[in-house]
Amino acid sequence: MKFTIAVLDGDGIGPEICAGAIQVLNAVGAKYGHQFTFEHYPIGGCAIDECGDPLPRATVEGCLAADSVLLGAVGGYKWDDMPVDKRPEKGLLRIRQAMGLYSNIRPAKLWKSLAKASPLRYELVKDGVEIIIVRELTGGIYFGERGSAEGADGEYAWDTEKYSVKEIERITRIACELAVKRSKKLVSVDKANVLQSSRLWRKTVHEYCARNYPQIEVKDMLVDNMAMQIVKNPAQFDVVVTSNMFGDILSDEAAQVTGSIGMLASSSLGDSKRGLYEPIHGSAPDIAGKDAANPIATILAAAMMLRDSFDLVREYAAIEIAVQKALDDGLRTADIAEKGMRTVSCSEMAQAIADRV
Ligand code: IPM
Ligand code: MG
């Protein structure tokens, strides 16, 4: 089969990790008889430098014309002082909206061979951890009305958390579809003891699940308690559904618990098969250009694309197994190496995984 993939390399280590993923995709293509065509478009800081806009029109058009999108990472110190509309992150927020990607799936998985890298005590993680955070991505306080004004006490500013029943239902459906294939347990996170929008969230999740997925057991958790439970007993969670901002915060926490943020991939999807796949980690400007990054998260993001956008389940598994083999063979980039272990570069790791495909 033939697929066109838009590649948004972005900033920092973005180009290096995307190159690694492309190398592995080409190995999959050669083995299973698929042809992948890669079209590169700028996003983030490099797009600001090139065209004065973190998300040029050609990038949006290229993404909408492609079968799916692979993203590296955006941002860097260089653009930290730019006005808010000209910041690299804005490119990411706008492409999510332009592609209608309302659901962000962030699996935080502890790889058994890396259990010692977790900052938690070994006994808390020894049986494995896999928390799948389903984050609403195009609503809530990220996109609500905001502003600032002068008042009697000087300047003030506001941002609005707003959710409609429709927005809550469609993200709940995505979470339920995952939960029925797994433990049939769903944790919904909110702040219903304080926020009106959370009370609507809670009521809608329950009504929607009772109507459409009665086999799923839904449990509510307040976000502050959730933050605590993730470090106290991460193994209790399976699928978790939450709002845009809570999901942003909790997914970083869950990722850190696995000790291997350089290994974690995420997918953003809407109502079509076209998605945006990216590593959970950022652009790591401190190691950019040094061939020292860990390409595995981006390689696994590419694998998720094969499975979830193209229905290539065998090919997905081939990449996952190749990554596991590379780890079992003792290959480590610096971020996941234990003391005294020899480390490999970003390109060596990508090559090793491509060879094992
Ligand atoms: C993420 C990031 C983004 C977000 C930033 C870069 C805008 O933190 O993907 O989690 O807050 O969504
Ligand atoms: Mg974040």
Question: How would you describe this protein?
Answer:
It is a single chain. The protein is globular. The chain contains 12 helices and 12 strands. The protein starts with a strand and ends with a helix. It has 357 residues and is of the alpha/beta class. The chain has helices at 14-32, 45-51, 57-65, 88-98, 122-125, 165-181, 196-212, 223-232, 244-257, 296-308, 313-328, 346-356; strands spanning 2-10, 35-40, 68-73, 103-109, 130-136, 146-151, 154-159, 185-190, 217-222, 239-242, 265-269, 276-279. The protein binds 3-isopropylmalic acid and magnesium ion. Residues 248, 252 line the site of magnesium ion (MG).
| C-alpha geometry | globular
Tell me the fraction of residues in β-strands, as a range: 15-25%
Total of helices: 12
Cα-atom Rg, whole angstroms? 20 Å
Mean pLDDT over the full residue set: 96
Ligands bound here?
3-isopropylmalic acid, magnesium ion
Helix content: 40-55%
Main sheet specs: 10 strands, mixed
Q: Order of strands across the biggest sheet?
A: 2-1-3-12-11-4-5-10-8-9
Separation of termini? 18 Å
What low-confidence regions span 5 or more consecutive residues with pLDDT below 50? none
Order of helices and strands: EHEHHEHEHEEEHEHEHEHEEHHH
